[in-house]
Amino acid sequence: MSKMRINLIRATIHQYKCIETEQTFEIEKDITLLMGKNEAGKTSVLEALAKSNYFDSCDSKYAYNPTFDYPRSNKRNLDKTVGSPLAVTLHYHVSAELQEEIKLEMLLPVEGIGFSRITNYLGKHQIIDNAFEYQPLAFWEAYASQVDGNILKYRKKLANIRHAEGFQDFMKIVLPDASVEEITSLENIERFFENPHEWDNPINEYVFRRYLQPDIPKFMYYGDYHLLPSRVSLNRLLKEENLTEAEKTAKMFLKLADIDLDEVLHAQDFETYKTEIEITQANMTKELLKYWRTNQNLRIEFEIIREEIDHENINKKKKFLGFIGRKNAEISPSFETFLEIRVQNLKKMVSLPLENRSRGFNWFFSFWVWFSAIEKDNSASPYIFLLDEPGLNLHSIAQKDLMRLIGKLSSNYQIMITAHSPFLMEEKLDKVRCVVDKECGTCITTLDDEDDEETLFPVRYLMVNEQN
């Protein structure tokens, strides 16, 4: 069953880099494939979406920048624009489960099952076409008749309150004459007037903040620079300052391996982790090989080591510590702790650092680590994964394995992929959108509406092979 309680069903990119004219396209519930030639604008589509609601709001790379992101051909119009130009509008569908939750508290029926959110180049949002809107007086009349009759005589005054301060002023006026029951009832509805977003209608703001906003999926972009390193400093990971994408993947690896970073860094030695590491290595290998059929002789190995820093010669001397543990030791400035990842080939009896394996395997393994860690986290936010040309270095069989893994992930998340390879599109032609560079800039079309033969080449290839 999908974790997504709110699904993205359609996207409109107003203007972004090579997208000079407004483009709207449908999004699938599971996997959407963006097919197009090199430099057609596929990556720009993913970037435009990612920057509208990126999962890491502190990552400046995923914030709109009019200087670099606004189409250069339209820069003159930008200078004349009053306010910030629009970047993206996203259209959402709310699940039946979430609709029912809203109805239970809000009582009144709504017209529709979704809403849209506009994002401008300042990263500011505006909700439009919202089906979950209520007339305040109608809501308070329903509340009084179905939930608590003690507020009946106050319903008209409540309908005119717009914010928390207004509610407090209202309470000061009514308190002297209100009964104990009425005061309790009024205190119970204070939550409806918090209105931190300062909407004109606090009831609608409450519904958005309480029910919709937490489940609006955030975008997560995954590219080649997320490749897992063979060796990473755990001291750096603990600080969480200016981490590279590769280091962030290393944190995902530790999460997947159930290794507590703080605990490891404060441990005097690592014997207590030895058995756990061996079990984790075996489990990781078993799970990975369910999807990596290209070479079943591979085994994942990793270990935690501590190196003594030779401050005098600015060199590091590797020092493997003993195996009697003592927790809560101080982190010494004379030592640095590392995670090292290797891959062993049982057939050839060779063990190599991860980065010395093929780039295709490294990409696949890093991808598997990242998303397995997210899938393991039941508290994770809803995500839409944006994969930019995944598995570019993979053999065709491995690409099919990758799509099996992506198919598993798509049961819980929406996924968008830019692709060239027909092996990534096999049996998914109904999910393909064409990205084409035309005179008016990048355009996004359906297969039925596209006639550019070079763009359609992967599809033609699949059709010919099916006939043969």
Automatic annotation (TrEMBL):
Q: Which CDD domains match?
A: ABC_ATPase (cd00267)
Q: Cite the Endonuclease GajA/Old nuclease/RecF-like AAA domain residue spans from the record.
A: 12-424
Which InterPro entries does the UniProt record give?
AAA_GajA/Old/RecF-like, P-loop_NTPase
Q: Which domain of life is it from?
A: Bacteria
One GO BP on record is: double-strand break repair
**Pfam families attached to this UniProt entry:** AAA_15
- Protein name, as recorded: AAA family ATPase
- Give the source species: Acetobacterium paludosum
List the top taxonomic levels of the source: Bacteria, Bacillati, Bacillota, Clostridia, Eubacteriales
